[in-house]
């Protein structure tokens, strides 16, 4: 009986020795680190990966062997190839070609391994994009990116889960130009594909008027939406979209109704553009936030997007106002009839959007 009890206890000790360390073998730190040091014509890279991840990917056992001198043996090239494949960096749209990584350097104090590389550039960089999915086997894995611009830490980002990309604009003339080149076209594109903003603008132009009057209307709309766009993007004021979108629809209804009721009275379109432009600015902000704003170039990105929106608005206004002026010059009655019909169409579209956004999209709930 005693011998049987000793045998049972011995088996229990062996089982405990096998199974109890299992939690300690779980991933101790699911993080990688990427440092980019940007100079005028070079980019220095350092990638720090945890020994556990390296051991898993390269089938090294025990994992701590990775931290020993020569512990990777002939696997160093495989690790460099893995980093090259899963860390993709582009400079101004061109893939950064890392010809060679340094030999892996053990960092025992961090339980990690470091690889370094330097890439010479043909000119000063403007925009740098980083995409990292370093260890897909671990869905919790994250990659911390640190960007040093001319020696100063200027940006940090965490890549992982559903957000594996990061965009950085260098703090130089080339970086500023890269911001402008990206966000001006985005502003133009957004105003041209945004039917509610366009219809609001067209509604303001239907009654025609002098060039000065029309410029004042467009300028008031631009100033107003620029103010709230900046406030929303900077998180000073951020009303919920389910409130903003129905109010934008109401603003369209109001413009059409005002056109039908003005009847030669006082022209209030400048004030309408100014007041409701504040609401439209919050709508623009939701789009701009989805694009992802570079924290290091926030001012230029806001300015560029607004400038693009203004270009789109002016282009639409020139076409619409010119067509209406031409029609009125040829047939005044037809011009008035078109303004009435157009205003009714504006009201109908605004009503449709209001009903859709309140009752079918969870708006104003």
What would you say this structure looks like, in words?
The chain is of the alpha+beta class. It has two domains: 24-171, no CATH class; 175-359, no CATH class. The chain is built from eleven helices and ten strands. Strand 8 (142-149) and strand 9 (152-160) form a beta hairpin. Helix 7 (211-233) runs antiparallel to helix 10 and helix 8 (241-261) packs antiparallel against helix 9.
Gyration radius, in Å:
30 Å
C-alpha end-to-end distance: 74 Å
Q: Please, how many helices?
A: 11
What proportion strand? 15-25%
Count of the domains: 2
Largest beta sheet, briefly? 6 strands, mixed
Ranges with pLDDT <50 over ≥5 residues? 1-26
Topology as a string of helices (H) and strands (E): HHEEHHEEEEEEEEHHHHHHH
Shape: elongated
Helix content: 55-70%
Strand arrangement across the biggest beta sheet:
5-6-2-1-8-9
Q: Any chance you could write out the topology, listing elements then pairs?
A:
Elements: H1 2-19, H2 22-25, E1 31-38, E2 42-50, H3 51-58, H4 76-86, E3 87-91, E4 94-95, E5 105-107, E6 112-120, E7 127-132, E8 142-149, E9 152-160, E10 165-169, H5 173-193, H6 195-205, H7 211-233, H8 241-261, H9 269-291, H10 298-330, H11 332-359
Parallel strand pairs: 1-8
Antiparallel strand pairs: 1-2, 2-6, 3-4, 3-7, 5-6, 7-10, 8-9
Helix pairs in contact: 5-10, 6-8, 6-10, 6-11, 7-9, 7-10, 8-9, 8-11, 10-11
């Amino acid at each position: 009986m005693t011998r049987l009890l000793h045998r049972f206890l011995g088996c229990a000790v062996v089982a405990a020795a096998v199974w109890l360390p299992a939690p300690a073998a779980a991933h101790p730190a699911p993080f990688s680190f990427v440092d980019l040091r940007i100079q005028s014509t070079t980019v220095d890279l350092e990638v720090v990966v945890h020994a556990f991840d390296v051991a898993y990917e390269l089938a090294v056992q025990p994992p701590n062997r990775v931290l020993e001198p020569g512990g990777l043996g002939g696997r160093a090239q495989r690790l460099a190839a893995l980093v090259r494949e899963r860390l993709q960096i582009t400079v101004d749209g061109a893939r950064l070609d890392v010809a060679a990584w340094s030999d892996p350097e053990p960092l025992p104090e961090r339980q990690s391994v470091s690889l370094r590389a330097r890439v010479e550039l043909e000119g000063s960089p403007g925009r740098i994009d980083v995409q990292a999915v370093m260890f897909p086997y671990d869905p919790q894995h994250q990659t911390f990116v640190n960007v040093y611009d001319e020696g100063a830490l200027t940006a940090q980002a965490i890549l992982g889960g559903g957000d594996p990309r990061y965009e950085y604009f260098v703090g130089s003339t080339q970086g500023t130009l890269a911001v402008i080149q990206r966000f001006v076209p985005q502003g133009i594109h957004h105003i041209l594909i945004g039917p509610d903003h366009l219809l609001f603008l067209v509604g303001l132009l239907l009654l025609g008027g002098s060039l000065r009057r029309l410029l004042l209307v467009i300028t008031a709309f631009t100033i107003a939406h620029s103010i709230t766009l900046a406030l929303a993007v900077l998180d000073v004021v951020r009303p919920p979209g389910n409130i903003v979108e129905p109010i934008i629809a109401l603003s369209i209804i109001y413009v059409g109704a005002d056109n039908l009721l003005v009847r030669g009275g006082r022209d209030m379109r400048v004030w309408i553009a100014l007041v409701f432009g504040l609401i439209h600015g919050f709508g623009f902000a939701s789009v701009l936030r989805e694009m992802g704003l570079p924290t290091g170039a926030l001012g230029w990105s806001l300015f560029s997007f607004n400038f693009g929106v203004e270009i789109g608005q002016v282009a639409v206004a020139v076409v619409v106002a010119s067509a209406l002026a031409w029609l009125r010059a040829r047939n005044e009655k037809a011009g008035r009839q078109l303004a009435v019909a157009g205003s009714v169409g504006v009201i109908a579209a605004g009503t449709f959007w209001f009903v859709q956004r309140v009752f079918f999209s969870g708006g104003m709930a």
